[in-house]
Amino acid sequence: MSATAAHPTEFWHRLDDGRVQCDVCPRACVLKEGQRGLCFVRGCEDGAVVLYTYGRSSGFCIDPIEKKPLNHFLPGTPVLSFGTAGCNLTCRFCQNWDMSKSRQMDTLAAEASPKGIAQAAATHGCRSVAYTYNDPVIFLEYACDTAEACRALGIRNVAVTAGYVSPGAREKFFSCMDAANIDLKAFTDDFYKKLCSAHLDPVLETIEYVHKETNVWLELTTLIIPGHNDSDAELARMADWVVEHVGPDVPMHFSAFHPDYRMQDVPATPAATLTRARRIAMDHGVRYAYTGNVHDGAGGSTYCHACGELLIERDWYRLGHWGLTADGCCSHCGTPCAGVFEAEPGHWGSRRLPLAPSAMAEAA
């Protein structure tokens, strides 16, 4: 498949002046013939919006599901992760900028069909496929076709997304997913405008939609950036909103920032800041809060919100003590733990296994 092969898309409309408007995300890019949207991977060709990265990936890797991060969805199991190129946000602090900000389509892997990805996941014993590295919203058609192929083989689908998506595309995209980790980057519109060229409200709408209108298992992640989104007041407001609008059982992850991309003048997040964020969230009613990107056994483990007993011990991405019953309840007091669990945890551990693009072709 050529690097510039165009694939038809669904969410767009033609304007009276002959231009087209992409309706996948709130940016609503208006394009003339030959122009591309801010994401760079959707553009106008022959009077229609097309996708240029269908069937092309920036790489494949088998990860522990906890790395997404998802701590309450099939713990301990392997997930086949992949992404493409481009993004519909402009985050100055992007930690995957080499992929999400890429404009070099020829750096993408050779052909990787939806059926090939699904079969490769099955061949390698993966319980799910994750659409990640860059935001899958912008390669919606590729993600949804792959998800359909995965479901035919009994493989589940995981979205790792910023949630910056329009209502119609939102419904289509999440109907294909079984779990999602949504980036709640901060809790002020000013942060989104200055550092991401976006707005907060569409993200909050996506979070509410996923929780209330779908059966997708939901977790949230906030990358804590010193001096930008780490105040006690903002963290408290965020936790209060989560508890009020999506409930206390939605896990929150607070991850450490490291200087990268266009924010190399900002220091890395101290571990104590993540511990503080986790404590604030729990003090405000969040039952499951975690620290990430740091070695913190207590902050990475799951505890019963009723009796405090250890339910799932984690050392980085490796599981230890398992305190859940076969039906997902605390073995000490019987209180259910929110999530998607099986009778026993997986045993993938902390391994990271890159796969060559040829594995997709061979599987297909």
| Strand element count | 18
> What is the name of the CATH topology of the largest domain?
TIM Barrel
Q: Approximately how much helix is present in the residues?
A: 25-40%
Question: Structural class, from helix and strand content?
Answer: alpha/beta
Mean pLDDT: 93
Give me the Rg, rounded.
20 Å
**What is the string of SSEs from the N terminus onward?**
EEEEEEEEHHEHEHEHHEHEHEHEEEEH
The coarse overall form would be globular
Domain count: 2
CATH first level of the largest domain: which class? Answer: Alpha Beta
Uncertain parts: none
Q: Main sheet, how many strands, which sense, barrel?
A: 9 strands, mixed
Strand composition percent: 15-25%
Strand arrangement in the largest pleated sheet: 14-13-12-11-10-9-8-7-18
Q: End-to-end span in angstroms?
A: 15 Å
| Number of helices, where a helix is a run of at least 4 consecutive DSSP H or I residues | 10
Structure write-up:
The chain has 364 residues and is α/β, with parallel strands linked by helices. It folds into 2 domains: 7-51, no CATH class; 59-300 and 337-355, Aldolase class I (TIM Barrel). 26% of the residues lie in helices and 21% in strands. The protein has 10 helices and 18 strands. The protein has helices spanning 97-100, 114-123, 140-152, 167-175, 189-196, 201-213, 232-245, 271-283, 297-300, 358-363, and strands at 7-8, 12-14, 20-22, 30-31, 42-45, 48-51, 59-64, 78-83, 128-131, 156-161, 179-183, 217-224, 252-256, 289-292, 302-303, 310-315, 318-322, 353-355. The strands form 4 sheets. A 9-stranded mixed sheet has the order 14-13-12-11-10-9-8-7-18. Strands 1-6-5 form a 3-stranded antiparallel sheet, with no helix packed on it. The longest helix has 14 residues, at 232-245. It starts with 6 loop residues before the first strand and ends with a helix.
